[in-house]
Amino acid sequence: DAGVIQSPRHEVTEMGQEVTLRCKPISGHDYLFWYRQTMMRGLELLIYFNNNVPIDDSGMPEDRFSAKMPNASFSTLKIQPSEPRDSAVYFCASSLRGGGGYEQYFGPGTRLTVT
Amino acid sequence: KQEVTQIPAALSVPEGENLVLNCSFTDSAIYNLQWFRQDPGKGLTSLLLIQSSQREQTSGRLNASLDKSSGRSTLYIAASQPGDSATYLCAVRPGETSGSRLTFGEGTQLTVNP
Fold it and tell me: How many angstroms separate the CA of residue B78 from the nearest CA in chain A?
């Protein structure tokens, strides 16, 4: 399996622009997570989905952030409008319920810089 | 609210040394605990997952133990190598009914010097 795939790997944008991050989970996994990592706050869970349905979005910082999962093999995290404080590494992870104990597998991350 | 603490925050050891990384959590009602490593500029790689009913898990030179009642887990690395240099994070999963949500510690940054 190719693992969790994220794109782009790096994104540099100007304040006010819309940013869309993409994730393809491991095939067959039924949970998908979006995290944000910064030096100041460490690793934060933003939102997670089960069977394409958002379960907990309490970590989404504000209305500028939105996430969708239109099907089992694709999810997006959108920031509109972006701000410099959104600069961070954004990770997508997926897991499978059952015997695997929900072990999470992370993608390589998208490093976002908002200038 | 579950809180996960990792001590020390940073550790530097000479190559070949055996070492222990510590993880503690405040709520012992966990479903399982997962150890990850993160290399600079990279994502997290799962190392070991210990179910709440287990005491330890082993993979190669790594051994993770879990004492759920005392809220502690340790990651033991035998015969450390420079390639083990990374940040190690532990994360706990509160319960199956909570889905797969993890609470992470801040990590221990390990440097193994040749």
Answer: 24
